[in-house]
């Protein structure tokens, strides 16, 4: 099930790399970007995370927090952040509930079931403004930024 522009963004309450709870309830009233990626410190995920990080000042200048979500645990997230000096929260979704709710888990052509690399721009009312599925990591952060500036 894919989300589309205008759909309500599914609620989540996930912990970040430091065990702090981050929830859609707490984000209400704020636009934000949430992206789902397969695994910390793997080639594509590193490219994507580093490019979001490289553009973080631009996102922050627009008042847009960036949140990364994977099934990895807090220790893995901390190591990934430290290794690449990532400055945005990485959330753990070990039971896959948020992945499933956002359509970020499913059958991938030619690769079997797993994480569907996807990103969501959520508006202040908790509605999906834009959804990207089957994201190519390289250049995606700039694509999201262009949408925000559009």
What is the gist of this entry?
This protein is α/β, with parallel strands linked by helices and 150 residues long. It is globular.
Mind explaining what this structure looks like?
- By secondary structure, the chain is α/β, with parallel strands linked by helices.
- Helix content is 32%, strand content 25%.
- Strand 6 and strand 7 (112-115) form a beta hairpin.
- The radius of gyration is 14 Å and the shape is globular.
- The model has no long low-confidence stretch (mean pLDDT 96).
Question: Topology of this structure?
Answer:
Blueprint lengths: L12 E3 L5 E3 H4 L4 E5 L6 H12 L1 H6 L4 E5 L3 H11 L5 E3 L4 H5 L3 E4 L3 E4 L2 E5 L5 E6 L6 H10 L1
Parallel strand pairs: 3-4, 4-5
Antiparallel strand pairs: 1-2, 3-8, 6-7, 8-9
Biggest sheet, spatial arrangement of strands: 5-4-3-8-9
Oligomeric state of this protein: single chain
Taken together, the total number of domains comes to 1
* Largest pleated sheet: 5 strands, mixed
Give the CATH level 1 class. Alpha Beta
From the alpha-carbon coordinates, what is the Rg to the nearest angstrom?
14 Å
CATH topology: Glutaredoxin
> Which residues sit in consecutive blocks of at least 5 with pLDDT less than 50?
none
Compute the number of strand runs. Answer: 9
End-to-end Cα distance, whole Å, is 27 Å
CATH homologous superfamily caption: Glutaredoxin
Inertia-based shape: globular
Specify the helix fraction band: 25-40%
Q: Which architecture would the CATH scheme give at its second level?
A: 3-Layer(aba) Sandwich
Total helical elements: 6
């Amino acid at each position: 099930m894919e989300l589309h522009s205008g759909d309500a963004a599914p609620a989540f309450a996930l912990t970040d790399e430091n065990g702090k709870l981050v929830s859609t309830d707490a984000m209400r009233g704020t636009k934000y970007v949430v992206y789902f990626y397969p695994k910390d410190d793997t080639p594509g995920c590193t490219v994507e995370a580093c490019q979001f990080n490289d553009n973080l000042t631009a996102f922050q200048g627009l008042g847009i927090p960036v949140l990364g979500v994977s099934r990895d645990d807090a220790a893995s997230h901390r190591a990934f952040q430290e290794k690449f000096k990532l400055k945005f929260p990485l959330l753990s979704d070990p039971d896959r509930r948020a992945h499933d709710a956002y359509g970020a888990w499913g059958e991938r052509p030619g690769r079997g079931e797993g994480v569907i690399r996807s990103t969501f721009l959520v508006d202040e009312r908790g509605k999906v403004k834009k959804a990207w599925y089957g994201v190519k990591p390289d250049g995606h952060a700039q694509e999201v930024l262009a949408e925000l500036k559009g």
